[in-house]
Amino acid sequence: MSDWNPTQYLRYGSERLRPALDLISRIQVESPDSVYDLGCGTGTVTGILQERWPKAKITGVDSSASMLERTRDIETGVYWQHADLNDWQPESLADVVYSNAALHWLDNHGQLFPRIIDGIKPGGVLAIQMPKNFSAPSHTSIADTVREGPWRERLAPFQREQPVAEPSYYYDLISQMSSSIDMWETTYMHILEGANPVVEWTKGTMLRPLLDNLNNEEAEAFLKLYTEKVAKAYPHSANGKTVLPFKRLFIIAVK
Ligand SMILES: C[S@@+](CC[C@H](N)C(=O)[O-])C[C@H]1O[C@@H](n2cnc3c(N)ncnc32)[C@H](O)[C@@H]1O
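That is the input. Now the predicted structure with S-adenosylmethionine docked in place:
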């Protein structure tokens, strides 16, 4: 199974942090006892959750050893748990379950979301952010590049073309288990520097499982084809920078 590359992921750390902070700022919980960060990755956001609730027991959960390895830089009292969210349960009912940019990597949200809510105390909060950019050229060009190459059949199982449903789907799914729900979408306009910044961005996320399943020559050919498509869709602005619009879905449910 392919693993994450924390260095590539953190290349756009400040752009990736902003939605995480926007989500935290909307959670209205005073003094929780237990907080979980699902798919905590390198733990940057988990550390911020602990700064917000210093008296709470904060646990970061992730299935990637290489991402968790980076949490050593977080000098806090956070607990780290190496676990797969596909069959994860909290040790005891949680006050806050937070997840930033992670649950779109898991299938079957129809079972996953209710199972996560089952692990929250009545009155507790579920706070989730997932990318909703899968119809944008940054992502559709990945699917096109897969279809156009000799790697088509090999890579098909690793593609995630539409892993996040419409907000109404999540509303129907969780409204019966929640006393209130707040949902919104935001399109961030990331101003990126460099020759092919959109390619560098997706290399840290959606391209990762695909490139890991190609040999060096194939990966080079794949990236060349993908870069040509992306360059047309995201031309450099007059000052050489590139604007990447990126839509994200936020859900906050009080149980
Ligand atoms: C894009 S990173 C987000 C990391 C962090 N939440 C942040 O905001 O910086 C997605 C994380 O989800 C984790 N992840 C994906 N599938 C998972 C699973 N089935 N179980 C646990 N973690 C998973 C990955 O290992 C990765 O660290």
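The mean pLDDT is 94.
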